[in-house]
Automatic annotation (TrEMBL):
KW Methyltransferase (keyword) present: no
Name the record gives this protein: GDSL esterase/lipase
One of the GO biological process terms: lipid catabolic process
Secretion signal, residue range per the UniProt entry: 1-31
SUPFAM superfamilies: SGNH hydrolase (SSF52266)
Pfam families: Lipase_GDSL
CDD domains: SGNH_plant_lipase_like
Family in the record: Belongs to the 'GDSL' lipolytic enzyme family.
Gene name linked to the record: LOC100845646
Length: 384
């Protein structure tokens, strides 16, 4: 499939999704458990001390009003985790784990709704993300969660395992680990060994989740890091950085191969889908008009060249029409881009290019009922 044809297929998925409301008598899975970085963090970093990055206003600018927090998400509205939960039929995005109290953790202990353990700035490797919750620590938090489900008496071990086996485990990580190249900690010559270490560590943590009961796994691969606005500022003409994109593709390719090998050898009951966030964003960037987008190089919120030399803050230059932009800030997509990405992940357009070996819709067993109507708003956990 050519990139233009794939982008056209993505447009069809987005157009179809615009006329669909995710609606069901019950969500398609009992719970969603989210791990990873700022593409899916819904507020854990709001509870961390500096130097962990925080999503300050105007992040969250386009979230629904009415007593709902605008903090915690590194975009202008919903992020990928929110929209996946929305597509699954949940009326509340799985809350940030660090936001939970004894009163608000009852659903989690019952194996319902789930929780979000992701931390903006974190990576696969423990050396990535100063002050963040590493992926290893996120998995350990889930170890504690499962133990609490059983120890609290809300669930027996067998029931906990049954609920977890039907739940969706969503992981988005790896992009921040590539900072090792720009910071000079890893040379290009060392790239193969470094990327191999990333992938082997990633697989180790996935195996740990499998041992804990995960059987339905959604993985988001790494963005075209050479095309994010901050990377474009490296060149005089603001084009994508080919070497950076090559590194990301190398990681994504190896991840697929090693994931297939590991599933066959050690995780026989695992059903998984790898969504190519790389290809989805690459096609949006190269054929924006097909997706109703216009600005693919500059950030909506920031400052300096391409609006991407300064972090997004209350003092930033802010674009007027966020729905025209692929990127919200230096590295994160807009809500508009994320909605298009999730549509492609679920609808199976560009099969083999956007998802493999199956789509997210197939991953959850086609249990989500789609009906005509506007997109439903999620209730958001406060992260004040």
């Amino acid at each position: 499939m050519t990139r233009r044809c794939a982008a056209a297929a993505l447009l069809l998925a987005v157009a179809a999704s615009a006329a669909l409301l995710v609606c069901s008598s019950a969500p398609g899975v009992p719970a969603v458990y989210v791990f990873g970085d700022s593409l899916v963090d819904v507020g854990n970093n709001a509870f961390l001390s500096p130097p962990a990055p925080r999503a300050a206003f105007p992040c969250g600018l386009d979230l629904p009003p009415g007593g709902r927090s605008t903090g915690g998400r590194f975009t202008n509205g919903y992020n990928l985790a929110d929209i996946v939960a929305q597509r699954m039929g949940f009326n509340m995005s799985p809350p940030a784990y660090l936001s939970l109290t004894p009163q608000t953790s009852l659903n989690l202990l019952r194996g319902q709704v789930g929780a979000n353990y992701a931390s903006g700035g974190s990576g696969i490797l423990n050396i990535t993300g100063n002050g963040t919750i590493t992926l290893q620590e996120q998995v350990q938090l889930f170890v504690n969660t499962k133990a609490s489900m059983i120890d609290s008496g809300k669930l027996g071990n067998d029931m906990a395992n049954r609920l977890l086996s039907r739940s969706l485990f969503l992981v988005s990580t790896g992009g921040n680990d590539f900072a090792a190249f720009t910071e000079g900690r890893v040379t290009i010559a060392e790239a193969p060994a470094y990327i191999a270490s990333m992938v082997s560590t990633y697989i180790k943590h996935i195996k740990a989740l499998y041992k804990l009961g995960a059987r339905r796994l959604g993985i988001l691969d790494v963005l075209p890091v050479g095309c994010v606005p901050s990377t474009r500022t490296w060149s005089s003409d603001g084009v994508c950085d080919a070497p950076a994109n090559s590194l990301a593709r190398g990681f994504n390719t190896l991840l697929r191969a090693e994931m297939a090998n590991a599933a066959a050898a050690a995780m026989p009951d695992l059903i998984y889908s790898i969504a190519s966030i790389y290809n989805i964003f690459y096609d949006m960037i190269n054929n924006p008009q097909l997706d109703g987008l216009e600005e693919v190089a500059s950030a909506c919120c920031g400052g300096g060249r391409l609006n991407a030399e300064d972090d997004c803050s209350a003092r930033s230059n802010l674009c007027a029409d966020r729905d025209r932009y692929v990127f919200w800030d230096k590295v994160h997509g807009t809500q508009a881009a994320y909605k298009r990405a999730v549509a492609a992940m679920f609808d199976g357009v560009g099969a083999g290019r956007y998802t493999e070996p199956i789509s997210f819709e197939q991953l959850v067993g086609n249990q989500v009922l789609l009906m005509q109507g506007p997109m439903v708003d999620l209730e958001l956990q406060s992260v004040e």
